[in-house]
Amino acid sequence: MKCLFALLGIALTASAYDPLTVPATPPSSPVDLICRDEARERDIPLRVFLPAATKPAAVVLFSHGLGGSREGSAFLGRHWAARGYVAVFLQHPGSDEAVWKDTPPARRALVMRGAASPANFLARVQDVPVVLDRLETWNRTPKHALAGRLDLQRVGMSGHSFGAVTTQAVCGQSIPLGGARFADPRLKAAVIFSPSTPAAGDATKAFAGVTRPWLLMTGTHDIARIGGTTIGAADLASRLGVYPALPPGGKYELVLHEASHFAFTDRPDFGGEAPRNPNHHRVILAISTAFWDAWLKEDPAARAWLDGEAPRALMATEDRWQNK
Hints:
Elements: H1 2-16, E1 31-37, E2 42-49, E3 57-63, H2 74-82, E4 86-90, H3 98-101, H4 105-115, H5 118-139, E5 150-160, H6 162-170, E6 174-175, E7 180-181, E8 187-193, H7 203-206, E9 214-221, H8 236-245, E10 251-260, H9 278-295, H10 300-307, H11 310-314, E11 320-323
Parallel strand pairs: 3-4, 3-5, 5-8, 8-9, 9-10
Antiparallel strand pairs: 1-2, 2-4, 6-7, 10-11
Helix pairs in contact: 1-10, 5-6, 9-10
């Protein structure tokens, strides 16, 4: 009988769980910081979304796509912070908005393609451990804006497009640069928007070492206008090729019907694309939050919600959701 009550308790808790609910008290305004890497003479701009509570909170890093900045995809940062996470948005010099901002429109595609280079990929994956190291320092620095705010035993990594390639590399994928690995053990789980298989080599081998939980999100129209990088491809077959190549265990895939490449950002689609489906952001926020709650906070109600039928109730009939 006790076992039955225990099971009923878990079921009731899971049914009450709602990853879209946020407290009445809004998070504070984001904090902009610069992380200086003296070894590379490189400044990494950061935008940090902080929860209202000041106790140590789990941390989620976010890496923007090609030509983006720390200001992009703020809808994610605001919601994750409202749900009790410190969301740290990185800006990667060399593949950020500075690449195209002062460039004549006719040349922007050319310079953007040039920025999707192995050198900038390496710079990005090297940015991540530098930022993690600096967060550790700031967390123990009295009177710093982040002092005592970070639970660095619970850190996740996320990114979109080129940021997805970055996230995949630091979260377990082997890279077609001599089979190099850049995984950082401090990263416990990953949410990957617009993922991609390697531009060369066998995907199953590349992802064989991915032991931590991954959540993949893409769309049936998720094709980048600029194309892929020399590290990862950017067509739909590549987006959909990641999930089947992953080993089982905490792996999830969401495919949103008619979602384009920019459905996972807060910028408008380019001309000619279908208008944004307002439900896409709702589904993205709900499922990403439940994933963080399940795998970073180890919340059993979130795990039950994520592994049950609740995600499908938010989606359109044509959306696809699977896990293994």
